[in-house]
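To close the chapter, one final illustration. This time we ask the reader to focus less on the individual chains and more on the assembly as a whole: which components sit near each other, and how the overall shape emerges from the parts.
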Amino acid sequence: SQKIEQNSEALNIQEGKTATLTCNYTNYSPAYLQWYRQDPGRGPVFLLLIRENEKEKRKERLKVTFDTTLKQSLFHITASQPADSATYLCALDPYNQGGKLIFGQGTELSVKP
Amino acid sequence: DAGITQSPRYKITETGRQVTLMCHQTWSHSYMFWYRQDLGHGLRLIYYSAAADITDKGEVSDGYVVSRSKTENFPLTLESATRSQTSVYFCASSALEGEVEGYTFGSGTRLTVV
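The assembled structure is written out below.
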């Protein structure tokens, strides 16, 4: 069956360190993959999109990699801050799905001062 | 203000009642979506719309109805609410097929069915 998996356990790191979140998928051939941030009681907020022919994408302190052979995306936050604490969701846009995103369950990140 | 607005923010309803959740966007985005978010399941697609008068079912559409007579509005109706429909509902919109800027989500409606 088709599946998207993110670290189910919360990730706790120290301020200033790099946070790395993982998104694995099976039985998809996604055209692109997206990452979102969600704060408690709020809707997800779009962060980054990476296409299947791109290996890496950066935006300020954020970096996303996409390995279609491993069927995995890594999401990095460098020089993490307490304000980065949130739940991070990955989402796939499979080919020919009319733009319907399929979401992972998210990984909760906690950055301690 | 420009954006995507959901109403109401919170709703309590009784089993068997019909309830409509509203979604309004000001960008004239072609695509609109309804998701529900539950612990243990993440975000699941209920319905989506590629344009006015074009809608299609998602993964968990049973018990829900949508309409899209105008580009900016995409209401979601629970025809006869059940306790299993207690959830947080998110509306989203996108200019293209989620390609350029990703989806923009509303703040959600927390629905409780008692």
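The mean pLDDT of chain B is 93. Chain B is about 0% helix and 50% strand. With these observations in hand, you are ready for the problems at the end of the chapter.
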